[in-house]
């Protein structure tokens, strides 16, 4: 039987992101100098019908190519308020909605592609969320991810495990997520992975949505 969504943890995630929504972009000004380059690289590859989950304040929107057909979803309505302001400045429509990646409101094979940037660190059950992306993306499609993960070194990884509960409480993100392993646990196959940033903490991952295997 498929795992159930933990509604308490999911509500907590929503509360945390609604709380930091007014400060989110300011909090990330320094990291964004580097992240924006990676966002541009990833999002430029979006084509066809695209589902972006955990859109947040819509930081990726400027990097979609003109004419992109994008649906954006996030669990936190206050993050979406900021995303709507960004979307209004675009010359193509981005359809935004509140929703949970662990239980997507779309039939199977609805999209050519899915995108998520810095999202699976905060989704309570990332494997469930990744399985949902696998379900709604066509077999011929791709899932593009940009995620920070637990650093794969004994001491640094251990320190990340220790301080994770504090970070999670204040900003809603788990700094020790094993997203590469979670992708495999969701039955997905990594086609390409790029290791980026400090101690290769950020991964740019291309996943095949192929459901045959
Ligand atoms: C660290 S922010 C990243 C936002 C944006 N993708 C970016 O790159 O700036 C994580 C986002 O994921 C959203 N999120 C967390 N859990 C979610 C879930 N279960 N379903 C949908 N969105 C979720 C949060 O509300 C938040 O907006």
Short characterization:
The chain contains 7 helices and 7 strands. By secondary structure, the chain is α/β, with parallel strands linked by helices.
N to C succession of SSEs: HHHEEHEEHEHHEE
Question: So what's the overall shape?
Answer: globular
Strand order in the largest sheet: 3-2-1-4-5-7-6
CATH class: Alpha Beta
Average pLDDT for all residues: 95
Terminal residue distance = 20 Å
Number of strands: 7
What is the strand content? 15-25%
Bound molecules: S-adenosylmethionine
How many domains make up the coordinates? 1
The name of the CATH architecture is 3-Layer(aba) Sandwich
Low-confidence stretches: none
What is the CATH fold-level name?
Rossmann fold
Helix segment tally: 7
Care to describe what's here?
Helix content is 38%, strand content 23%. It is an alpha/beta fold and 213 residues long. A seven-stranded mixed β-sheet has the order 3-2-1-4-5-7-6, sandwiched between helices. Helix 4 links the parallel strand 2 (69-74) and strand 3 (94-98). The model has no long low-confidence stretch (mean pLDDT 95). Bound molecules: S-adenosylmethionine (SAM). The site of S-adenosylmethionine has 22 residues, from helix 1 and strand 2.
Which descriptors would you attach to this protein?
single chain; 213 residues; Rossmann fold; seven-stranded mixed sheet; 7 helices; binds S-adenosylmethionine
């Amino acid at each position: 039987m498929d795992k159930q969504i933990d509604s308490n943890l999911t509500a907590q995630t929503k509360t945390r992101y609604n709380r930091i929504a007014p400060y989110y972009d300011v909090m990330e000004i320094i990291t964004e100098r580097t992240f924006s380059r990676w966002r541009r690289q990833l999002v430029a590859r979006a084509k066809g019908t695209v589902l972006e989950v955990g859109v947040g304040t819509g930081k990726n929107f400027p990097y979609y190519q003109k004419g992109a057909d994008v649906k954006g979803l996030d669990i936190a309505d206050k993050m979406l308020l900021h995303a709507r302001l960004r979307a209004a400045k675009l010359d193509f429509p981005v359809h935004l909605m509140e929703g949970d990646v662990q239980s997507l409101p779309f039939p199977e094979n609805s999209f050519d592609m899915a995108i998520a940037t810095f999202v699976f660190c905060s989704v309570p059950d990332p494997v469930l969320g990744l399985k949902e992306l696998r379900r709604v993306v066509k077999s011929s499609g791709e899932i593009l991810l940009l995620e920070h993960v637990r650093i794969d070194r004994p001491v640094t990884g251990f320190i990340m495990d220790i301080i994770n509960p504090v970070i999670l409480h204040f900003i809603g993100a788990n700094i020790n997520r094993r997203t590469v392993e979670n992708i495999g646990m969701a039955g997905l196959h990594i086609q390409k992975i790029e290791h980026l940033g400090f101690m290769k903490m950020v991964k740019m991952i291309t996943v095949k949505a192929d459901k045959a295997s």
